[in-house]
From TrEMBL:
Domain named tRNA/rRNA methyltransferase SpoU type: residues: 25-168
Superkingdom classification of source: Bacteria
GO function terms (MF aspect): methyltransferase activity
CDD domains according to UniProt: SpoU-like (cd18097)
Family annotation (Pfam families): SpoU_methylase
A GO BP annotation: methylation
InterPro entries: Alpha/beta_knot_MTases, rRNA_MeTrfase_TrmH, SpoU_MeTrfase, tRNA_m1G_MTases_N
Name listed for the protein in its UniProt record: RNA methyltransferase
UniProt keyword list: Methyltransferase, Transferase
Record organism: Xylanibacter brevis
């Protein structure tokens, strides 16, 4: 096996990306403090052509050197918006017809392995602060909660890793087809 060179990958230009069909998913970051985590979410969002990233509360917005360091330019390809609170973002998304799912450990959450996205719906997922998670008022305003099963001793994962797992689940279910 030979590694494929970047030039051989035929990646989209930013202009082509902007015009391309998107995964019907918005990623909402609720008070994520690390700009490196934000940049990483942008990069994963670009990889799977996520519709948009909503930055809320204390989230830094582009342009920022630390975001760019991990986003590697994805903050320019992926659409984004800023909201003062994630609660405001969730209400706006619900008013636009999105099903909003917080990613959080709560009573009666849906374990990720049991979740099957409906291809006729548009979704938004809310990812929370690195320490406190998703605000309770945001959980309460959500249509439901997804939970990633954790089998080890820790009770949480890095927010950018969580984003990668969640975004992949949607991409796998909605757009990636076995060849």
């Amino acid at each position: 096996m030979r590694k494929i060179r970047t030039i051989e990958m035929q990646r989209l230009s930013i202009e082509e990306y902007k015009k391309s069909e998107k995964l019907p998913l918005v990623v909402v970051l609720d008070d994520v403090r690390s700009m490196y985590n934000i940049g990483s979410v942008f990069r994963t969002a670009d990889t799977f052509r996520v519709e948009a990233v909503y930055l809320c509360g204390i989230c830094q917005t582009p342009p920022a050197t630390e975001i760019h360091k991990t986003a590697l330019g994805a903050e320019e390809s992926v659409d984004w918006r800023y909201y003062k609170t994630a609660f405001e973002a969730v209400n706006a998304l619900k008013n636009d017809g999105y099903e909003v799912l917080s990613v959080e450990q709560v009573e009666h959450s849906t374990k990720l392995q049991h979740f099957v996205p409906d291809p006729s719906k548009r979704y938004a997922v809310v990812l929370g602060n690195e320490v406190k998670g998703v605000h309770q008022e945001v959980v309460d305003a959500s249509n439901g909660c997804l939970e990633i099963p954790q089998l080890g001793t820790k009770h949480s994962m890095n927010v950018s890793v969580t984003a990668g797992i969640i975004i992949y689940k949607f991409a796998e279910s909605l757009v990636l087809k076995p060849e």
